[in-house]
Structure formats: structure tokens, C-alpha cells
Amino acid sequence: MKTKSVKAALVQHSHKGSQDENLAHASTAIAQAADSGADLVVLQELFAHAYFCQTEDPAQFDLAGTLNPGKPGPILQSLSELARQHGIVLVASLFEKRAPGLYHNTAVVFEKDGSIAGRYRKMHIPDDPGFYEKFYFTEGDLGFKPVHTSVGTLGVLVCWDQWFPEAARLMTLAGADMLIYPTAIGWDPAENEQENSRQLDAWLTVQRGHAIANGIPVLACNRWGFEPSPDGHTSGTRFWGNSFIVGPQGEWLARASTDQDEVLTAMIDKQRTEHVRRIWPFLRDRRIDAYDGLLRRFLDE
Questions:
Q1: Please, what is the end-to-end C-alpha distance for the chain in angstroms?
Q2: Residue 241, Cα to own-chain centre: how many angstroms?
Q3: Residues assigned a catalytic role
Q4: pLDDT score of 1 more than 60
Q5: Which of 4, 26, 148, 228 is most buried by its number of CB atoms within 10 A?
Q6: Minimal CA–CA distance to 246: which of 284, 281, 205, 278?
Q7: CA-CA distances (angstroms) from residue 52 to 62, 127, 210?
Q8: Hey, how many other C-beta atoms are within 10 angstroms of the C-beta on 247?
Q9: Edge-to-edge strands, sheet with 244-246
Q10: Percent of the chain, pLDDT > 70?
């Protein structure tokens, strides 16, 4: 039977110093979320590690693991057991080694019995100072396909994907009940506070816009805390937290702080999507006969 409402939890935390410490913290937070009645728990992008993409360092590839259920690595095995133990659907962003020299930023969705319900490989890969992800990650090749679970159909995307309305729309058109964004985003400490405020506001606004434009709840789980640049060539990154859950009109359901570990929870009423879309029928009025230009990089003529 399909659930009409879902209690969702986002686990926001700072880097704890090591993979083991991050996994231990996540385990405790997942238990806390489950004890509060959460059906769905979301971890932040690359939760098990520091954000290693601040520099281009071949040694960091050693952090990656294969995501083969037949031969699970320690992180995959631990997450599977946590989902089974607590009877939750769990979404986790992991560093995937697919083959020698081929790596992805992959979100894995675990069902309540610990099995893997599906996965999503990050499609949009940034390459900016402090965010050198193209050095590490190959663009995803699984497309924008939601994952079917016992708590609903999850449109899982990852971080940089959250800026692209096309990704949100395609997940929606494929039947997603909600959009989920594990994230690692923050400020350059060298920037002034006015610029920092504009960046955070833009991040919140664009994702609330996806909720509104598609009539669908959005969940974004971000890390927080300062992480220095490993090579000292930049100012490092101050991740801004502010994990949040909004409803299908962009209404705030829950929002975390900038500088605290939190287990953020909210009830998501999946029936509201139907109600909202009857009033705001954006999908009905789309002019799909007139959007050919979206398949071009730029309309030069």
C-alpha cells in the first residue's frame, strides 16, 4: 500500500576527522532519526569523508569503493545494515570506484530490508576553484530516473545538479514524489558577508523554485563547518549547512542552522502534490512542441 505521508530526516554534520568517525556519527544520527519515527533518512554528499575535491590529488582515489552488493565495502555494508536494523529507506552519497580509472559520485538508495533499491550517478560535475570534481568524477550515465521505494518514488540528484531546472523537471516527469539533493556547498572565507548572503539566498531560492515549478517537495541535505584546503593554496571552504525541506509550493517545512550538527525532520504529505498541481497545472500547460531549443547549447542564430 502506498504511503500518504512520509516522515523524512536529514542528517547535517561537520567532518569529524576520519571515515570511521563520520560513519559512527551518521550511525548515531540515523538511530536518532529512526527513534523519532522517520521513514526516510538522507545523508549529505560524500558524508564519509572530508570534501576532498578542494584539490586535485591522485591519492584521494583511494577513498573510493566499489558499490557491488555481492562484494560490499565497509561503508556500503554498514549503511545496508543500518537501513535494515532501523527499518528505514536510506539515501547516501558515496565515492564509487566503477573500474580502474573510472569513478563516480553516486547516491545509493537502500530499502528498509537493507537491499539496494537503486542508485543515481551525479550528472552535472563542477570544475571551479575549491570544487575540482571533474578531476575525480565521471559524468553519470544512469539518466534522470527516480528510484521506487516503499516510501515513494524518489528523485535523487546530487549537489551541483540542484542548480539545473532541467534535472528537476525530468525527475518530475518520470514520476518522482519528491526531489532529494545530498549536498556539499559553502562559502569561500575570503569573500565578504554580502556576497556570502547572496550565494546562500540563491541556493535556497533556486531549489524552492524547483519545488514550485514542479509542484513537488524538495529535500536538501548539506554539510557544515570549515574544511581547510589540503595544499594550503586556497582559503578552504566554510560549508553553510542550512539543510531544508520544503513542500510543493516552496513552503518551509523545516530548516537547519548554519553551524550545528542536526537531525532535521518534517512530515511530507504526498497528497498535497495532487492538490497543488490541480490549482497550478504547470505540467498541463507546458508547450512541449516549442522547446526544441533546449536541446542546444546556445541559440546563436
A1: 52
A2: 13
A3: 45, 122, 159
A4: no
A5: 26
A6: 205
A7: 11, 13, 28
A8: 23
A9: 147-149, 152-156, 178-183, 218-222, 244-246, 252-255
A10: 99
What does each C-alpha distance from 174 to 12, 147, 164 come to in angstroms?
28, 10, 16
3-state secondary structure of 194: helix
| Strand order across the beta sheet in which 224-227 lies | 186-187, 237-240, 224-227
DSSP code for 139: P
- Residue for grid cell 565497509: 74
Pick the closest to residue 187 from 133, 129, 243 (CA basis): 129
**Taking 80 as the threshold, does the pLDDT of residue 2 lie above it?**
no
Q: What is the per-residue pLDDT across 159-216, written as a single tens digit (0 to 9) for each?
A: 999 999 999 999 999 999 999 999 999 999 999 999 999 999 999 999 999 999 999 9
The whole model's pTM is what?
0.96
Long-range contacts formed by 55-63: CB under 8 A, 24+ apart: 55/132, 55/229, 55/230, 55/231, 55/233, 56/132, 56/135, 57/230, 57/231, 60/136, 61/97, 61/103, 61/136, 63/19, 63/95
**Domains annotated on the chain, with CATH:** 12-295 (3.60.110.10)
Could you tell me which of 55, 36, 43, 45 has the C-alpha nearest to residue 79?
A: 43
Cα angle 263-264-266, degrees, rounded to a multiple of 5: 140
